């Protein structure tokens, strides 16, 4: 997993819960990296899972809710860091439907070793998008947060329904209807 995901996560934890919480979850997690991340480094996903688990245990907030908030936060990072990529699209449905065939290709150019989820578009109209998220990492709530902020970015709203295809969350169907 790319380091930017870790560095931004810890920034969010510090912003929301304080530096003491960042230190606490790093200490509790016994990380191979020691909790020292660079944005361009690559780290084992188990470290993120450990950080999330300890943050959840210390705050009483579910991992899914933490990932949702983190996805919403991370959209802002992407929009500020790569405005040209986001602003290529004039509509949230267009942006979301292009994740696999455009956005992820551009991400791979910047982070060649990034292990990205896949998004298979099953249905697309101007007001509806149905796609299947597949990842061994079950971070679908992070994806939902990104989707929520995508609609907000375009001054739009949507109803987004999630259906777990696999119980462990490694395959999730998103049905998105623009309001």
From TrEMBL:
<feature type="domain" description="Heme NO-binding">
    <location>
        <begin position="2"/>
        <end position="160"/>
    </location>
</feature>
<dbReference type="Pfam" id="PF07700">
    <property type="entry name" value="HNOB"/>
</dbReference>
<dbReference type="InterPro" id="IPR024096">
    <property type="entry name" value="NO_sig/Golgi_transp_ligand-bd"/>
</dbReference>
<dbReference type="InterPro" id="IPR011644">
    <property type="entry name" value="Heme_NO-bd"/>
</dbReference>
<protein>
    <submittedName>
        <fullName>Heme NO-binding domain-containing protein</fullName>
    </submittedName>
</protein>
<dbReference type="InterPro" id="IPR038158">
    <property type="entry name" value="H-NOX_domain_sf"/>
</dbReference>
């Amino acid at each position: 997993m790319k380091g930017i995901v870790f560095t931004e996560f810890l920034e969010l934890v510090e912003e929301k819960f304080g530096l003491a919480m960042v230190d606490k979850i790093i200490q509790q997690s016994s990380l191979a990296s020691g909790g020292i991340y660079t944005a361009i480094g690559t780290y084992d996903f188990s470290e993120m899972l450990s950080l999330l688990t300890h943050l959840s245990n210390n705050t009483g907030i579910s991992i899914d809710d933490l990932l949702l908030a983190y996805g919403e936060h991370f959209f802002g990072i992407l929009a500020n860091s790569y405005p040209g990529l986001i602003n290529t699209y004039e509509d949230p449905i267009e942006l979301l439907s292009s994740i696999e065939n455009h956005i992820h290709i551009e991400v791979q150019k910047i982070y060649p070793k990034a292990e990205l989820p896949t998004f298979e578009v099953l249905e697309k109209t101007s007001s509806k998008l149905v796609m299947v998220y597949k990842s061994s990492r079950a971070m679908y709530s992070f994806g939902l947060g990104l989707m929520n902020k995508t609609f907000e970015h375009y001054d739009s709203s949507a109803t987004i329904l999630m259906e777990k295809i696999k119980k462990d969350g490694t395959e999730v169907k998103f049905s998105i209807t623009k309001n």
